[in-house]
Amino acid sequence: DFTVVGCGDMSGDVFGNGMLLSEHIKLVGAFNHMHIFIDPDPNPKASFTERRRLFDLPRSAWSDYDKSLLSKGAAIFDRSSKSLKLTPEIQSCFDIESTSVTPNELITAMLKANIDLLWFGGIGTYVKGAIESHADAGDRANDALRVNGAALRCKVIGEGANLGVTQRGRIDFARAGGRVNTDFIDNSAGVDCSDHEVNIKILFGDYIERSDMTEKQRNVILESMTDEVGLLCLEDNYAQTQSISVTESQAANVIDQHRRLMRTLERADILNREIEFLPDDEQIDNLEAANEGLTRPEISVLLAYAKNATYEALLASRLPDDPLLIDDLVRYFPEPLRETYRDGVERHQLRREIVATSVTNAMINRAGPTFVNEMCERTGLNAAAITRAFAVVRETFGLRELWDGIEALDNCAPPQLQIRMLREINRTVDRVTLWFLRNAPQPLDMSGLIAEFGPGVAALAADLDDV
């Protein structure tokens, strides 16, 4: 079981769905524009059932919560009240000495509560950086209750809503030991889902134009694939946040690689460090001296820029047309489409864009945000050449099976051990990618190299213990 304070209510799509993802949630407090909900010691199972009931109501509010299910000392307050009388249980839960507070004072204490998860599912910016003014947060309505990132005592921030925290607030929280990504990382599955939906509709649109399918048939197939599209999106976003964790685990050791990547992006007029709150060279020198690296929020931004730059470079090259990457194109679509509609997949109007997106995600998520830039600098070759070599290494060494095996250990093996294994694989990816780039003729014959080296690597791997 884990404790949660949240911004939002069960009628809200983001907040409500989030609070139904686990029966182990102990929602000790939540607030929206009308109410403040406090349940100091909730029963996880009973409260989950009640949250489900509220979620299923057409328009629910915290005032609809069944008060007989609340724990001792619980209360549901109106935010319009001038003062709130607190029970000893509420005082203890949020470390408040006074028996009477204003609604804003209570919310401020909730934001700074000693809990596991602070879940933002409603509108507003509630956390800022220490050097920022309330005006910098750009949300005047919440100036009276906003807190600094370093003052938070929660273990994790989840930003289901946009801009619950400013970027400087995230960085301050992360530097103080908290776990946080960014809102665009925590929200990216929704964008991914829309991306899949549009591309599947374009695929079926081709069949409808050819009179090989009716719109009614299309709709039936679309609905049948809902769960699998969801899983595809979750896989993408699992890999993306895993990449951030792997990078974070060695952030101090790769800070100079991050500096070089930022410089490359700046020279290409792609990145402005000041706008994105990324450290300048002097600040990086200070981090190096303190044996520190970038935080998760900063890594999130750099990951996004690395992906965008790589995608544009690949799309401008001939790489998306290589037959070997048909597999990446096909894997993008749900299982029912991969065989039955394979011909339509292969002639998809956005085939090149899908390939470039899928290959970029696969490579950057696995090898890290600095991988392409480092390989380009060390070989003088371009992003397309690097990607070809990565694809050869991935297939030759059967890395997909290795990655799947490590991820199957979730909640069975310590996560730090899984990260160590992933980093060990990346050492091989770095070394062997470099070897192929330096020793094989350019442009790399991907299919030929995999056929040439794959059997030897497989034979060696089979006897690795004896060797």
Which features would summarize this protein structure in a list?
single chain, 467 residues, alpha/beta, six-stranded mixed beta sheet, 22 helices, 10 strands, globular
Write the layout of secondary structure elements.
Blueprint: E1 2-7, H1 13-18, E2 25-31, E3 35-38, H2 44-56, E4 75-78, E5 84-85, H3 88-94, E6 100-101, H4 103-111, E7 117-120, E8 127-128, H5 134-137, E9 147-148, E10 156-159, H6 167-175, H7 183-186, H8 188-209, H9 215-224, H10 226-249, H11 255-267, H12 281-289, H13 296-315, H14 326-332, H15 335-340, H16 342-346, H17 351-367, H18 371-379, H19 383-396, H20 399-407, H21 415-439, H22 446-462
Nutshell version of this structure?
The chain is an alpha/beta fold. Helices cover 55% and strands 8% of the residues. Helix 10 packs parallel to helix 17, helix 11 crosses helix 13 and helix 13 (296-315) runs antiparallel to helix 17.
